[in-house]
Amino acid sequence: STEDIYQSELVRAFVKGGNELGLPHIDYNANFQSFGVSTVQATVLRGRRHSNARAFLHPVKHRPNLHIVTSAYVTKLLIDPTNKEAYGVEYERFGKTYRVGAVREVILSAGTFNSPQLLMLAGIGPQEHLQELGIPVLQDLPVGQNLHDHLAYVGLHFLLDKEVSLSAYNLMTSESISDFLKNGTGPYTSLGGVEGIGYIKTELSQDPEDIPDIELIFVGASLSTDYGIFTRTGMNIRDDIYDGLFRPTHNIPSWTIFPMLLHPKSTGYLKLHSRSPYDYPLLYGNYFTD
Questions:
Q1: Nearest CA to 196 among 25, 27, 11, 19?
Q2: In the CATH scheme, what is the code of domain 9-51+150-261?
Q3: What are the sequence ranges of the domains in the chain?
Q4: Over the stretch 69-89, which tens digit does the pLDDT of each residue have?
Q5: What is this structure's pTM?
Q6: Other beta carbons less than 10 A from residue 114's beta carbon
Q7: Could you tell me where the beta strands, DSSP code E, fall in 201-245?
Q8: What is residue 149's three-state secondary structure?
Q9: Rounded Cα distance, 104 and 90, in Å
């Protein structure tokens, strides 16, 4: 389900400021609403994330025609070399290897990195690369050669003259904790601090006129809000950079906004590290190369 997310004074000011700049308040998941600002949307239930698994799998997990296997690591796609059709998968679970056959089809949905990894391990990928690793080539295809990533700048830092942000001061109160635990409301239901979204077009854009090139991710807090405990380490920010830019503002209310490039021209690629499905693939982002 989609519920109203907690809104601080800051995100209301963000939307109002966008309106004053000529950006309408939009439903960014609707058609034909390309440019504008909005509070963030999310699928939550009683203030907590409501994932696809929780929403759709859990209610039907006891059906006799549905089998859900957890803690399983797929190691191999089973493909018939004569007709090049997938007929099952091989997986490892708690030290044992299992095989599962498919009656109709195998749907490969292992994510951006593991999907191409499994395909290449099965012999579907760039011929030269597969031959380098001694993998029999089933089909020469540019698998893993079209890696796109959205770059964002996370260093913008705006200070406030009063406490209206999602700061520890507002979060670490008995009222906020009680609201969340009892009612699923309050600032703890915020999506990691992300409260607003905006879509704009810059003068440097080479995209079609009706397509924005920058997404603005509004956060009702900043990198210094948690005193460098979680966000800094999660973003792998060096100590010297954090100490110089953010530590001096530990006790000052602040917020940030992340400008994100929507349509990067640079293209990266992925290669196998080895023939083992347990070795992480090699990633080459090629950022800023185009």
A1: 11
A2: 3.30.560.10
A3: 9-51+150-261, 69-145
A4: 999 999 999 999 999 999 999
A5: 0.85
A6: 17
A7: 214-219
A8: coil
A9: 16
